[in-house]
């Protein structure tokens, strides 16, 4: 809806489309439609991270239950997944659960679902952008804390920002806290590309939805069908990149500002960094966390690391 758009969205899009290498921050992929499409992606056979991490979590829960002190409060960065979060809560029976998510609506519905399933658990949802400073509820300041950051979401941050984020988690949770984090591994390029550009076309719709969102919320007239989704492996930076590539010369306006793209020029919309085993450990160390245990699936596709502040 024009006029009601988030001013930060407008600023990021107008600046991003005019940049020498046009790019829009990936967080704007997740409006309601984008979140639904991402949910659909996690159920695709080619998108291995969700299934692999869930199976791995199931397998390591008995070990985690002994490694995590009794009376721990779990702080999840993100609203929580309907499958992964209950696995953790069931295994370690925490003193409290604090999901932190920017979308208050999504947070509310996932907290309601968990309250039904864990009626004795104290749940304190916090509606905040977990990447920016925020306060934990007073009730969870005393107990030891475990940060939970599954899904390889850390991979969507460039290493410098990822390090800042990990340091911010450390400051928030305090010295001696634990962090349980999912990190995707480097693997053959064909498998990586297949996970981000599959025949079903859901990831393409997820990416193209950004242009639809710009048209809807920022009064744009981008001809969406003049762009196509492309997933690229950037070997130097160890990451999958999502781009929207112009298929012909195209001109459009957003919030009254004109833009022109030549055929083949692209808008960079997301990075998904993949970490080799030692690279993952180094990133955590740079972020102020010492890895204390690490698990991976038999194929070495995905890892879960427990680290201490
Ligand atoms: C949310 N994040 C971890 C996903 C990823 O794999 O980087 C986002 C995604 N983009 C395309 N497919 C999935």
Automatic annotation (TrEMBL):
Recorded GO MF terms: L-histidine N(alpha)-methyltransferase activity
Pfam family, any one: Methyltransf_33
Matching PANTHER family: ERGOTHIONEINE BIOSYNTHESIS PROTEIN 1
Protein name per Swiss-Prot or TrEMBL: L-histidine N(Alpha)-methyltransferase
Highest taxon above the source species: Bacteria
Entry EC no(s): 2.1.1.44
Domain Histidine-specific methyltransferase SAM-dependent per the UniProt entry, residue ranges: 9-308
Gene name of the record: egtD
Organism expressing this protein natively: Sphingomonas anseongensis
GO BP, sorted A to Z: methylation
InterPro entries membership: EgtD (IPR035094), EgtD_Methyltrsf_superfamily (IPR051128), MeTrfase_dom (IPR019257), MeTrfase_EgtD-like (IPR017804), SAM-dependent_MTases_sf (IPR029063)
Swiss-Prot/TrEMBL keywords: Methyltransferase, Transferase
